[in-house]
Amino acid sequence: MFPNRSAITKTNAILIVGIIIIAAIAAGAGWLYYSKPAPAQTTTLVYETAGDINMLALAQNILGPEFEKRNPNVKVVSVHTGPGDAGDMTIVEKLKAEKDAGKQVWDVDVAMVHQVFMGEYIKNDLILNYSTTLPSWKYVTTPLARNSLGTPCTGYVMPMFNSQVAIAYNPKYVTSVPKTFDDLVTWVKANPGKFGYNGIKGGMSGVGFVDGWVYWKTGKYNLYAITGPYDKGNEQGWDQAFADLKDFNKYVTLTAGNVGTLDMLNRGELWMGPVWVDMFYTSMLDGKMDPSIKLFIPTPGLPGQPMYFVIPKGSGNIELAKKFVDMVMSPDMQGSAIIVKYNWYPGIDGQYVKDYVTPQVYNRLYGDIPPDMLLKLGQAFPLSGYMVDMGSAYEKYVSG
Q: Which residues pair with 113 in a beta bridge?
């Protein structure tokens, strides 16, 4: 009369167990699905740099990897446009073309450029005014962060480093170091053939010396390098300045270039000559420069040049670009990368990196030319028009 209880029980038990197993599998699969976080989306930051190939190496080997380490979901792609004016013009033309085309998001997020085209970047509204908002701005004291070859640039740039021309001398033979250009002329005439430079060919250390000579002779550094404007009428008196330089050159040795001057100093053939500070210390670390040789800058000074971080207005990652620049401008990165790896003067005031490098490294870079002296005697190269004219005047009055 009644159904077989054992049969019903067995059937129900099988069904229940099956349901439980299916539910467990489904629940497990769901648990696995919901507990596994979706992979974070990677953001690409495009960094474009002009300059020599070492600028690309710096980006690929140090700056990019360090930023990716600190920001795991970011990939830094570094692009090199090449040295000289052509490398900078490539960046200017690219940004202008994207702006003129009405492109909403431009290809480059942050760029490294020279001074020469800063007027073009700002006039054409291609770059962001951003740098004074960064935490690292408080470390920047150089006037070159506020004026770029006559173009006011406060806020538009951050100087990653500064290359400086200085006079190297051998203390074995130079017992009384010249303090001024007047002292330098007196020493050179008393020691003919022992001061050497490359004129205006073969490297910018010689060009820097010539420009510094003109600044000294005319007293018009601010006009030629800072305020402008460019006007050939402001070049009165150059014939005498270059006539004096021609007379000076009778007592000097003309070298083959930047490296030629360094080599002759190392061999003791020269006792004094203008050099790029970073090239000088790199040669010393590579065992190619007599470690006893020292540096000085004569009053009223010698020129140097920075390279600038700029952020294109059309960057799709403006906040990330700011973060990248701020990282590189921090005292620890300025010390470990800019000073230790490349022997450049940092873009920030040297006093702020002292705690981030060893005393040996700090004294190597600042022992002869401390930060306050560099700030006082480090000059800018002239506005491009004056720079071209100084080269032409050298050819006319000195080489001719």
A: 308
